[in-house]
Write a structure and sequence with these properties.
Layout: E1 2-11, E2 14-24, E3 29-33, H1 40-48, E4 55-60, E5 63-64, H2 70-75, E6 78-81, H3 93-98, H4 111-116, H5 118-122, H6 133-145, E7 151-155, H7 163-180, E8 183-188, H8 191-197, E9 200-205, E10 208-214, H9 220-227
Parallel strand pairs: 3-8, 3-9, 6-7, 7-8
Antiparallel strand pairs: 1-2, 1-4, 4-5, 9-10
Helix pairs in contact: 7-8
Length: about 230
């Protein structure tokens, strides 16, 4: 579904990603872990076209994306929930979700979104800035789903969320995968959350993939060592 091949990304003369190779199968959840500054957010931004690719390939269902602007990548089925959520705080919940409909040309929020996020239905006329951190994260995911993606990218979705809500978020992502039949790529630092959701876990260090595990054969101690400061 998503293939990243020999991806190099740089800020000016400083290369941040050094030849990444990652493939994501249909309906798979892949978690990319690593400490701050290891290149996870740069990877997400480069996949979306926010940061330009120096060299290499990003393709989805065989179609090359690396030369396309961000809006064309969204139109082809790539959706992004950025770190910090970036919702529109002065707009209502319903208006926030509707911004995701621009790609499809729809005007009504799909019913299955409110079924996945019943709290957003209750609060659809409330301003996004008045929601809790966990509710805002749900809103950001709902907005991304409104574009009817094939691949959903999430950057640090547990950041700023209470531990009690993180379990609910994990359950929600599994539901989204099964209901929408999409694949999910999540960059994250919370190992317990990743173990709840991921089929496969990759670890980034210094702009490279340095460790890979299937969920059923995961070496938690090895991953924890990479995440230790």
């Amino acid at each position: 579904m998503l293939a990243i091949s020999d991806l190099h990304v740089a800020y000016g003369q400083s290369e941040v990603l050094h030849g990444l190779n990652v493939s994501v199968a249909p309906n798979e959840i892949v978690a990319i872990m690593g400490r701050n500054g290891m290149g996870k957010t740069t990877l997400m931004k480069s996949l979306m076209g926010i940061v330009p690719t120096k060299s290499g390939s990003v393709s989805m269902e065989g179609a090359e994306l690396s030369t396309l602007p961000s809006y064309d990548r969204v139109a082809k089925g790539l959706a992004y929930v950025p770190q910090g959520r970036m919702i529109f705080s002065t707009m209502t919940v319903k208006e926030n979700i509707e911004t995701g409909l621009v790609v499809s040309g729809g005007s009504e929020v799909p019913e299955d979104i409110y079924e996945l996020f019943p709290v957003l239905l209750e609060m659809k006329d409330r301003r996004g800035g008045n929601l809790s951190g966990g509710q805002q994260q749900q809103l950001a995911i709902a907005r991304a789903l409104a574009s009817d993606p094939k691949v959903l990218l999430l950057d640090e979705p547990t950041e700023g969320i209470q531990p009690s809500i993180i379990k609910d978020l994990a359950r929600l992502l599994r539901d989204i995968r099964s209901i929408r039949n999409i694949c999910i790529v999540v960059c994250e630092q919370v190992l317990s959350f990743v173990l709840d959701i991921a089929d496969r876990i990759l670890v980034m260090e210094g702009g490279r993939i340095v460790h890979s595990d299937r969920r059923d054969h995961v070496d938690e101690a090895a991953i924890a060592r990479f995440l230790a400061v």
